[in-house]
From TrEMBL:
E.C. code: 1.3.1.70
SMART domains reported for this sequence: TUDOR
Keywords: Cholesterol biosynthesis, Cholesterol metabolism, Cytoplasm, DNA-binding, Endoplasmic reticulum, Lipid biosynthesis, Lipid metabolism, Membrane, Nucleus, Oxidoreductase, Phosphoprotein, Receptor, Steroid biosynthesis, Steroid metabolism, Sterol biosynthesis, Sterol metabolism, Transmembrane, Transmembrane helix
CDD domains for the chain: Tudor_LBR
Compositionally skewed regions (Low complexity) per UniProt: 66-75
Gene: Lbr
Source species: Cisticola juncidis
Family assignment from sequence similarity: Belongs to the ERG4/ERG24 family.
Membrane topology type: Multi-pass membrane protein
Membrane-traversing stretches: 206-227, 254-273, 294-313, 325-342, 453-473, 479-498, 519-540, 560-579
Protein name in the entry: Delta(14)-sterol reductase LBR
Length: 612
């Protein structure tokens, strides 16, 4: 194995990905398997670089001394090019040619700055930055070598256009003036994209290997325990139900219905209806295509259910065999997870999930080893995210409503059951109507598809999220119309916060220059993206989570206060969102560096204003 060239803690010059700009960085670690150095820039950004993209500081000083020994005319040219466009020239002698052509130098500076603004504007360490890597103050002296610009001759205009399109630069008022400058033969900063090589997952979540192993066992056990308790006359969480016979948990007919349901949703997903959109860029720059037809699939499913009811199919069969359906769905999710992990072993490195590439079987099996597993154009993760489980949740709620009417001999459902079904139906329809928004979530862009998402999408969502409706069948609760009106207002408030915050974020991510978002302010980051500091995202850091929690409370209130079981979903949701919030905080701090710290200072509250 080749030996490493640079030691941990050594300050070197690292090339910024996608350019030939070198910045002063500190080596933090080295991956012996991928042969990559993890380096830290002065703005807090951490990246993995190849050894060929790292040079010692002495090599740059040596080149500078060589250039000084050349002819006087070349010496003045070298000095002018050795500085970054953003750094002032102090105490520098100007040659006669320089004094005669100040406008040409100004044009040259504009060219270099405008061609690579994501690096020079956002990534160049500021003179006001007074912190070193170890937290000690740093002086700003003239001989700062934090940014070395390597220059090449003029590239064709097509290359300039390609670079500008690659960074999605906004047009400015002086675009016309800059186009005239580009037409002249000047010196440019050459930008060449480089391939990003995935590294091994170093920071393990969910308690690492032991924690994920316990979750693989604990999540199914939790689902079965909740359903068993809810079926009892006294649905207290401390009233442990007797263990059922194993043969009573499995029914081949029920498993066949589960397979039929999954296949039916897959057929609806493959229908050539709905628009096709591109997802966010992957690490290699490629964008996957997705067909947006979830709402159409929901309409077709509703029509199919209507046909079954017309022909006197007893949908309350779901209630009578609810535990068996949960066991069948869990078995299917486990089989799917095994398939996903086996196929991921042959996936290319660039297609692996950044958070599921630890090299540990249990951990990668749980979190998901492959980022976007596909069979042809059929994206398994995207399909499971919204289709079988989410639409199945609505069907289960409808079955519980019919079961309540049948068991209690009601001509119409109870007001509590109507509220629960209506609130959760609104939530599902909203998700399917805004299906494109899911493409910007961490589930799609960051998390792999493994047991965690497979079990969550196919088992946890339909069988735990429907816990309130399942509870009301065996434990009816009567509420008055004023109480129902108050609960409805609460749900509407939560839904408004949830939807408006998500829409604001998704629109800004896809098109920051949208005139509708002109009133929003943001903090620029080293990645070229912005952090919103006005609107809902200037109120708290995760306003969508706040709306989620308010809605979850409104879903549970129709069940009354006799037992805490219906509020398990609220407790779970708060714990889940606090965990996800902490996870997002850690991820954003690594990704955005000092910009995230500035954002946290502007927006101090995470989920609950003035509380947390």
């Amino acid at each position: 194995m080749p030996s490493r060239k640079f030691a941990d803690g050594e300050v070197v010059m690292g090339r910024w990905p996608g350019s030939v700009l070198y910045y002063e960085v500190q080596v933090t670690s080295y991956d012996d398997v991928a042969h990559l150095y993890t380096v830290k820039y002065k703005d807090g950004t951490e990246l993995a670089l190849k050894e060929s993209d790292i040079r010692s500081q002495s090599s740059f000083k040596h080149r500078k001394s060589q250039s000084s020994s050349s002819s006087p005319s070349r010496r003045s040219s070298s000095r002018s090019r050795s500085r970054s466009p953003g750094r002032p020239a102090r105490g520098r002698r100007r040659s006669a040619s320089q004094s005669r052509e100040p406008k040409d130098d100004k044009k040259k500076t504009i060219q270099e700055t405008s061609l690579a603004p994501p690096v020079l504007v956002l990534f160049k360490p500021s003179e006001n930055n007074t912190k070193r890597y170890n937290g000690e103050p740093e002086s700003t002296e003239k001989n700062d070598t934090s940014c070395i610009i390597l220059e090449q001759k003029l590239k064709p205009d097509l290359e300039v256009k390609r670079v500008l399109e690659q960074y999605s630069l906004r047009s400015r008022k002086d675009d016309k003036k800059k186009e005239e400058i580009y037409s002249e033969k000047k010196t440019f900063v050459a930008v060449k994209p480089i391939e990003k090589v995935p590294t091994k997952t170093k920071e393990l979540e969910f308690g690492g290997r032991i924690g994920t192993f316990m979750l693989i066992l604990g999540l199914p056990a939790t689902v079965f325990y909740l359903l068993s308790v809810c079926k009892q006359d006294d649905p207290s969480l401390l009233n442990f139900p007797p263990l059922p016979a194993l043969e009573s948990l499995w029914d081949g007919r029920v498993f066949g219905i589960c397979l039929l349901w999954f296949s039916l949703q897959a057929v609806f997903h493959l229908l050539p209806i709905g628009k096709v959109v591109e997802g966010l860029p992957l690490s290699n720059g490629r964008k996957l295509q997705y067909r947006i037809n979830g709402f159409y699939a929901f309409i077709l499913t509703a029509a199919a259910i209507g046909v079954l009811l017309y022909f006197q199919f007893e949908l309350d069969y779901l209630y009578d065999h609810f535990m068996q359906f949960a066991v069948s769905a869990a078995a299917f999710a486990l089989a799917l997870s095994i398939y996903l992990y086996v196929r991921s072993l042959k996936a290319p490195e660039e297609e692996l999930a950044p958070g599921g590439n630890s090299g540990y079987f249990i951990y990668d099996f749980f979190t998901g080893h492959e980022l976007n597993p596909r069979i042809g154009n059929f994206d398994l993760k995207y399909f499971c995210e919204l289709r079988p489980g989410l639409i199945g949740w609505v069907v289960i709620n409808l079955a519980m409503l019919l079961a309540e009417m049948k068991i209690h001999d009601l001509s119409v459902p109870s007001l509590s059951m109507i509220l629960v079904n209506s609130f959760q139906l609104l939530y599902v329809v909203d998700a399917l109507w805004n299906e494109e928004a899911v493409l910007t979530t961490m589930d799609i862009t960051h998390d792999g598809f493994g047991f965690m998402l497979a079990f969550g999408d196919l088992v946890w969502v339909p069988f735990v999220y429907s816990l309130q409706a399942f509870y009301l069948v065996g434990h009816p609760t009567t509420i008055t119309w004023p109480v129902a009106a108050a609960i409805t207002v609460l749900n509407c408030v939560g839904y408004y916060i949830f939807r408006s915050a998500n829409s604001q974020k998704n629109n800004f991510r896809r098109n920051p220059s949208d005139p509708k978002l002109a009133n929003l302010k943001f903090i620029p980051t080293a990645t070229g993206k912005g952090l919103l500091v006005t609107g809902w995202w200037g109120f708290v850091r995760h306003p969508n989570y706040l709306g989620d929690i308010i809605m979850a409370l409104a879903w549970s209130l129709p069940c009354g206060f006799n037992h805490i079981l219906p509020y398990f979903y609220v407790i779970y949701f708060i714990c889940l969102l606090v965990h996800r919030e902490a996870r997002d905080e850690h991820h954003c701090k690594q990704k955005y560096g000092l910009a995230w710290e500035r954002y946290c200072q502007r927006v101090p509250y995470r989920i609950f204003p003035y509380i947390y």
